[in-house]
Amino acid sequence: MLFARFIRNRDGGAAPFLALAMLPLMGFMGAAVDYSRANSARTAMQTALDATALALSKTAQGMAAGDLSGKTNELFAALFNRPEVLDAAVTTEFLSPQDGSFILKLTGSGKVNTVFSQLIGQSQISFTAKSEVLWGIKKLNLALALDNTGSMSSSGKMSALKTAAHNLLNTLKDAEKTPGDIKVSIVPFAVAVNVGTEKVNATWIRWDQWDKDNGTCSKSSYTTYSSCVSNGKVWTPKSHSLWNGCVNDRDQNYDVLATAPSGSATRFPADQATHCPVAMMPLSTNWSTLHGKIDEMTPAGNTNVTIGLQMAWQTLADNAPFDAPSPAPDLDKVIILLTDGDNTENRWTTSTSSINARTQKVCDNIKAASIRIYTVRVINGNATLLRNCATNPNMYYDVDQADELNGVFSSIAQNLANLRIAK
Known about the structure:
The chain has eleven helices and 16 strands. The protein is α/β, with parallel strands linked by helices. The chain has three domains: 22-136; 139-200 and 245-422, Rossmann fold (3-Layer(aba) Sandwich); 212-242, no CATH class.
């Protein structure tokens, strides 16, 4: 009631009291503006700290403490351009909690002068920001199972894939602390996979079906093996030197396993595929050759995801024919599968559902072998199958536009580099 009478009072003595009452209110309103300015400066500092920490993570473990601190201040000063911030400073802490594991902690601090908050007795606002980067130098064996089918020629997909794959290789090379720690295999696939014509005499290649599919009859009117032999004529297989390097799915269930080839059922059937992709490349540390293989890829043919995954797994297996390194605590084994379409053809059928079942089996078997799988669907393809194939849903990427591929591969590459920010 007293306040109400005060408001209604029109005597000259009430106005000064009202003006005085407004001062704190204006001060508090102005403080919100000052704190907003301080928060903006803190956000800019956080961004600069994160970028500084990431840049230093490549070399921090090889630097003396004084050199690391000096380099931190140099990079931070170049990135943090906020002249209104006073006494900006960064402290550096580098830790190695266990062999091969590193943590870089950066703490920034600063303050800004206030404009309005001075009305309530606050002349400055201080703030801090922190960034932590954690990384390791575990070894990596990575297999790229890349769709090279005809549909990859549309919507700029093959061009975008090549750009993304090149950038992924560059990121991994830069993350490599010791030469040889990262090995990459590349498996372009369509219905078949090309293991290279130089493998023509390899004991793990099976020739019985190829010999029947590629030959001539002693009577030229019989053009197939079955018609030739059923009519008592002689079928002569062509020279294996004419083989284009492609192999087909192994006998089931070896088509979804990485068993070492020995008997007939475990060998890879030679296949004179009409659309034979470029030759695959086993695990390699030759970055130049890996980049060259990406450039060679050409889209053609139908889709058989199963054989692409199986051969990618085979390149990571510590048995014949590729004899990859044995599993070890300091070694990660990973497959990245990229495809843009549904399964359409394998050795036995053109039934998509039947081929999908084989793909799911090889996915399950790979994960059971403690190999992580990233899957990337480009515009088209069975999203459910690919999502279920990935090690977890966060490792499945659905790309709606081909130009998004570079960002996806960059994200995967950063994960594979075992580097992350903890704020």
